Structure formats: C-alpha cells, structure tokens
C-alpha cells in the first residue's frame, strides 16, 4: 500500500500565486469579462511588482532590442498615430457582425447611449501578444491612451484602472511572459516627451466623452480608464 503524502497547511498556503491568478483569469474570460479591478491591482502590485516606466526609460529599453512597445488601443487609433516602433495588440476590436447575436445588439445600444464606438474583447489578444514577444525574446511595455496608474490616492484607493494595466495583468496571469512593464501616462506621456510617432495622421490627445456607469463589462473598463494625468509642465 502506497504511503499517502500529506500536505501541511503551510505548504497549502504557499500555493503559487500564478495558479490562483490564472484560475481567476480563465473564469473571468469564460464569463466575457476581466476580474474586478481591486483584484488586478493587488496582483500587479504585490504579486508581480509591475514596474511603470517613464517614456524616456521606455525608449532606451526599446532601443536595446530587448523590449517592444505594445499598443493596446483600438486598431483605428493605432492606424491614425502611434509611438514609433509600437506594435498593435488591441484589447478590444469592433463588433464582428458576421456572427450577430442578442448580446451584440445590447452592446450596440449601451455603447451608443454613451457616445462610444461599440467594441468587444479581442479573441486573439493572447496569441498576438505572444507574437509580439518573438517567442519570449522580448519583454513588453504595455500602453494605452492615458495609461492609468498603480499609485493609490485619496480618490482612487487602488490607483486608476486602464486598458494597458489590464493588458499587463493578462500577460502575467495567462503565461505570456514575466517581462512586462507599463508605460507611464501611455501614448499621451510619449507625446509629452516629444518622441516620434508613426501612422496615417498626427497624434492629438483624445479626452473624449467619459461613458456613464453601466453594467456592460467592456464599458466599465473604458469608463475607468478615461481621463489624463495632467502636469504643470505639459505642452498644450
């Protein structure tokens, strides 16, 4: 008879944080939404220690060839203008009407009421993010329009959510890579640093309209990430 291996309470308490985060991530993705922001915040700050890098440092990292800027904004925004050398791996994509269903109709109504172009999660996000790492040879620096922040404040106990921070969470929790950084103030910060842009047009900050609170998960993420961190030294 084989001896039964006993797992002590201490050993159980040391279950890898990656496994717990992966389970939460898989469940959330299956339900068509991301985990609550407070969970993501705790994971990024305490478990992974995600580093936010200034545009100046990000440029040095990218120029080394060991890192790549990953723009998670919608494809249209990337096409219009993006930081030079950035690759597009959108968190969300325009609604695919080749397979219409009731959920998409609800999205169309909810987004339209908030003055926002209707989108849905990009089903190929993880695969595209893996491609951006070139087989794990490059780390990723995630960026969106305004960046969000992991710095707690009086009004934002868990910092401020953003699509680039959510993308960093997915890169970690879904096993894409452990080489992940987050660009301070996003594309807007790159613009303020006077670094080069590429695309079909010129970059212009897009403050836009902040969607009202809504139950639709994607709208919640967009609403949370609205607004720029303004500084006295910013150019107009």
From TrEMBL:
Source superkingdom: Eukaryota
PROSITE patterns: RHODANESE_3
The Rhodanese domain, residue ranges: 63-199
SMART domains per record: RHOD (SM00450)
GO CC field: chloroplast
Record InterPro entries: Rhodanese-like_dom (IPR001763), Rhodanese-like_dom_sf (IPR036873), Str14 (IPR043186)
Protein name as it appears in the record: Rhodanese domain-containing protein
